[in-house]
Specification:
399 residues; alpha/beta; Aminopeptidase; Alpha-Beta Plaits; 2 domains; eight-stranded mixed beta sheet; 35% helix
Length: 399
Amino acid sequence: MNPSLHQWLDRHHSEFTSIRRDIHAHPELGLEETRTAALVAEKLRAWGVTVTEGVGGTGVVGTITGRRPGQRAVGLRADMDALAIHEQTGAPYASTVPGKMHACGHDGHTTMLLGAARYLAENPDFGGTLHLIFQPAEEGRGGALAMLADGLFDRFPCDAIYGMHNTAGMPVGTFASCSGPMLAAADAWSVTFRGVGGHGGLAPHLSTDITYAQAHFVLGLQGIVGRNVAPLDTAVISVGYISAGSVDSPNVIPAELVIAGTARSYSDAVRTLLEQRIIALAESTAAAWGCRAEARYDLGPSALINQPEQTKVGLAAATASVGADRVNGTLRPTTGGEDFAEMMRFRPGAFMRIGNGVAADGSYNAPHTPKYDFNDAIIPDGIAYWTNIVSLELGFNQP
């Protein structure tokens, strides 16, 4: 890490920790981040950054123009929203909002990008334009699509974009990424089976038992993965919800049953196949048992595909931040999802993981759980990473 930047980070680490903990104590769900967005805008303006608010609802974009000539423009993105989870960390800065908490580290992501914004605003010795994208609603409420629909890249042109997410269980001071598919498309599906209910003990033969249809449908789902998807492609179909009848009336065959789940894939072709086959399987299975099915398939975040050129830049920036021996450039992809993928469908980019730490015994609190917390110790490394991206992309000469 550049000695001057290292000294700057040491001086400001406690300040950024306070900002992160303030955001943590006041979590807001997607498209409701009014306080967080106002805080971001206030800090950026105080540091001399040009600010545009209300992009895609509650999104904020800060723009820094380098003092040296250059036509290239780069976007750095952080997410701002929290989750509907009741916090159990016991931290002095724990959530003050019942039932909501920053259980995925977006408070830290926002803080690290704010830190980079301040440093680069104080030292704009680069050529071109830097757009700092503070995105709302990453957690399933379509924040990236909302910003895109509001003309994100028409209003703030970017030649390349970069995102980053903390990873629990990965050591502090480490980074990891890979070229190509890194995260999966994360879609949701649901089926409502409707038939004729009846008395399950007295006259089951007079009903059209939708529980039979549901049972065969669930079994058939894995046949889609095993027999319709090519062996070397990746697909996941899981059931997460089934509801029918009443536990107080177990002798009644229900007339309606709802089942829902998730589907994951890396390619558009497999994604389309899953949609078509799940709907067809539901309808044909229902028909086989004399009932009806209403199936729907809702697209979530697209698959996140890192582009080779931007992946090289990201890995080089990580290496400049912590050293080559602490950077993994062949990270194994996972079937988690990430809203930043929608932006990457329109501009070439790369996504990076930064280690959030692991206890001495190997344990850690996973994201999306009540005891998870972002590790303030990694704030300097995250700021350094963003700064080094600008160095590589826009020729930033660090003091």
